[in-house]
Design goal:
Length: 300
């Protein structure tokens, strides 16, 4: 008999990777309030009673809580909704997992740090800057304090799922290229670590099977910057002679991207390395695979 996993908030870029990596070895129930795949059913995990009933009826061996608002500007403008979605729903998940005595997976973020250090390991103390980061950190703290068994996995700059679901930096850049832009304006003052969703899901699976509960940084190898990622994308797409990258400071985008962002979100997978369980690949290798698998023909 295959073990069962209930995955809440599975309709986004990370959910696509978890479905792909877990579907053959586990029996899944995948839910989201945006039912955009045939393998999804409707659930709004902010509704505790509906969430609890759906999970209890499925009788899973694990509960994965993936979904969150990740648009920082939206979070600054919709504060109550942000905490309801990114914090209280996580508390819902903890109550449900504890009731069923099953492990809980919660996804956290490199964005909970203030960027004062050049790199952060699993034991560094978070200092969230904006409401998105504060709400995600509050979820992390509640899981640590209240869940019986848990995995908290911190992702960096997420990439995955291609043009339909990727709403992050890479898709925004490639969309500009698709629209015929030959000048890309890219900030030169933001450092971080990309995280390929497929690698992330695989590494979660490894921890789950080893039953190494706790908190883990889980990002691709190699420290980088928005600027370097943009240059690598242009190079991988063979557009270096057609496209110019214009370096700007974050101030250039302040009108559209007004939420506070740390200057550095670089994580290192210290605990995974020490346990010999770090299977996250270098970000350049993962980026190439991502573009090859999801963007072939997209710019044609």
């Amino acid at each position: 008999m295959k073990k069962k996993i209930y995955i809440a908030g599975c309709g986004g870029m990370l959910g696509e990777a978890f479905y792909t990596q877990f579907k053959n070895d586990y029996q899944l129930k995948c839910t989201d309030k945006d039912v955009n795949e045939e393998w999804l059913s409707f659930l709004d995990f902010r509704d505790f009673d509906a969430y609890k009933k759906d999970v209890v009826d499925f009788k899973p061996d694990y509960l994965f809580h993936l979904g969150a608002y990740t648009d920082l500007e939206f979070c600054e403008l919709n504060i109550d909704d942000t905490y309801k979605t990114n914090t209280l729903s996580v508390e819902n998940a903890v109550y449900i997992a504890n009731t069923l005595d099953i492990p809980l997976l919660y996804i956290s973020t490199a964005g909970i740090f203030d960027g004062a250090k050049p790199v952060y390991d699993d034991w560094d103390i978070p200092n969230p800057l904006g409401h998105y980061a504060r709400a995600k950190h509050a979820g992390e703290v509640f899981v640590k304090q209240s869940a019986k068994r848990y995995l908290i996995c911190r992702a960096g700059w997420m990439m995955g799922a291609g043009p339909t679901k990727d709403k992050k930096f890479i898709q925004k850049l490639i969309k500009q290229l698709k629209d015929g832009k030959t000048d890309l304006f890219v900030v030169n003052d933001k450092d971080g670590t990309p995280t390929y969703t497929q690698d992330f899901a695989k590494n979660v699976k490894l921890l789950l099977e080893k039953e190494y509960w706790g908190l883990y940084n889980m990002v691709c190898g190699g420290e980088t910057s928005r600027l370097e990622v943009a240059k690598e994308i242009v190079s991988l797409l063979g557009l270096q002679n057609k496209v110019s990258i214009r370096e700007v400071s974050s101030e250039y985008f302040k009108k559209d991207y007004f939420a506070a962002r740390p200057p550095c979100e670089r994580l290192i997978n210290k605990k995974l390395n020490l346990r010999g369980l770090n299977i996250m690949r270098d970000w350049k290798i993962a980026l190439k695979e991502y573009l090859d698998n999801y963007y072939k023909g997209y710019l044609d």
